[in-house]
């Protein structure tokens, strides 16, 4: 189950949140691309993990960064043709704020595309999932700004909730 939430922040700056379960695969979109890139050559992805003080570079110039952290996770990371960051087998350690940035001739271009990756856990696994039954998901305590827990409800058929 992947739930996507988008918020409009200030003047046309978008934040996107993905809520995924442990072990899922997720594709984080880069919403601020320089057009006509060759293999995402202008794209850099960084992450600020929930439990870490500083950000880590994951992708530089469209390729997995050579740093120790990125290389330790290289088997689970990839970049798509549209410069999205794919993370396979998501773990709790992957939760955090991801930044897609564009650099051309060493200069940052435009604003960062910010994507929050948050993990969920089933609250009521005893509920049998049918088309008419909602699944309960607890958003784990990894909010970078508010340090709170949230309760999310999603239809088991991945549809939108009414009301």
TrEMBL record:
Report which residue ranges the record marks as coiled coil.
Answer: none
SUPFAM superfamilies in the cross-refs: Immunoglobulin
- Residues forming the Immunoglobulin domain are 15-118
Alphabetical list of InterPro entries matching this protein: Ig-like_dom_sf (IPR036179), Ig-like_fold (IPR013783), Ig_sub (IPR003599), Ig_V-set (IPR013106)
Query: Molecular function (GO) terms listed?
Result: MHC class II protein binding; protein tyrosine kinase binding
Q: Name one GO biological process term.
A: interleukin-15-mediated signaling pathway
Q: Which SMART domains match?
A: IG (SM00409)
Q: Which GO terms describe its cellular component?
A: external side of plasma membrane; membrane raft
Report the protein name in the record: Immunoglobulin domain-containing protein
């Amino acid at each position: 189950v992947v739930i996507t939430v988008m918020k409009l922040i200030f003047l046309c700056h978008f934040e996107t949140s993905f809520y995924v379960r442990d072990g899922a695969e997720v594709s984080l979109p880069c919403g601020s691309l320089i057009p006509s890139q060759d293999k995402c050559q202008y794209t850099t992805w960084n992450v600020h993990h929930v439990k870490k003080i500083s950000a880590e570079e994951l992708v530089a110039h469209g390729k997995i960064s050579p740093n120790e952290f990125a290389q330790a996770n290289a088997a689970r990371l990839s970049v798509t043709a549209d410069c999205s960051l794919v993370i396979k087998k998501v773990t709790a350690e992957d939760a955090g704020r991801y930044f897609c940035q564009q650099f051309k001739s060493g200069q940052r271009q435009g604003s960062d595309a910010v994507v929050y990756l948050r993990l969920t856990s089933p609250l009521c696994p005893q509920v049998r999932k049918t088309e008419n039954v909602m699944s309960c998901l607890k958003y784990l305590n990894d909010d970078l700004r508010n340090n709170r827990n949230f309760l999310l409800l999603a239809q088991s058929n991945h549809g939108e909730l009414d009301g």
